[in-house]
Design brief:
This protein is mainly alpha-helical and about 240 residues long. The longest helix is centred in the middle third of the chain and has 27 residues.
Length: about 240
């Protein structure tokens, strides 16, 4: 007797493919307008078999959100903990955020438009992740202000400016277009850092530092979905 799909060796591969297809459908049609039958037809599964993989439609939305926020938040925490200047860490975090936006456009679209369809613990978890990510950015901006690199302003307002410039990229960017994530990150940070009051001489240095970091530390990629190597403890 064949095993249920949830116990088969290819279960996780198939489940991830379903998540990707669902993200595409939700981005095109909207979460509320996409039925389980629509998704079943798209992945070639009857409703009962589909539920083996996804549990519920709401759970599928949770999986799509987690595909973005899980790796992004983990990478952002690692970047924030680096023993580097705050401007460089902001620049690295910017590129990391844009990298996952380029790769997961459908997921980002669903994340931005449909997260309010969640409820209960799922919504609480997602909002907590968003808050944690914003606090990491706010902390780095505050560090730059304390060091006198940025002018004194509201860290919350500065965080919203950072997020507004980055988070709307998914609405217009084309991964096959002329601009990639490192280029946009450099442009965004030049605009933000000048606006926040960074002296002009600091801006080329940040780009040199960013290039040197990526060249000299290939084991610490900015891609949120790539593994970071283990860094030995000091001493």
């Amino acid at each position: 007797m064949p095993r249920p799909p949830g116990h088969g060796p290819g279960f996780e591969v198939r489940r991830q493919k379903i998540i990707d297809i669902a993200a595409s459908l939700f981005a095109q049609q909207g979460y509320a307008a996409t039925s389980i039958n629509d998704l079943g037809r798209a992945v070639g599964l009857a409703k009962g078999a589909l539920y083996y993989y996804i549990g519920s439609k709401e759970n599928l939305l949770v999986e799509i959100q987690s595909r973005v926020m899980g790796p992004l938040l983990a990478r952002a925490r690692q970047i924030a903990d680096l023993d580097e200047e705050p401007l460089l860490r902001l620049r690295l975090l910017s590129e990391s955020l844009l990298t996952i936006i380029f790769r997961r456009l459908d997921h980002i679209w669903v994340y931005e438009h449909d997260y309010r369809s969640l409820s209960g613990d799922e919504l609480k978890t997602l909002l907590g992740q968003r808050s944690d990510f914003e606090e990491l950015i706010s902390g780095l901006l505050s560090e730059a202000m304390e060091q006198g690199v940025f002018r004194q302003t509201s860290p919350r307002l500065a965080t919203l400016q950072f997020l507004n410039l980055h988070n709307h990229t998914y609405q217009w960017v084309r991964p096959e277009g002329q601009w990639d994530a490192p280029f946009l990150s450099a442009e965004y940070c030049a605009t933000l850092f000048r606006g926040f009051g960074a002296p002009d001489h600091a801006l080329p240095r940040v780009e040199d530092q960013a290039e040197a970091f990526k060249r000299e530390r290939p084991g610490l990629p900015l891609d949120p979905e790539a593994e970071w190597e283990q860094v030995p403890a000091a001493g």
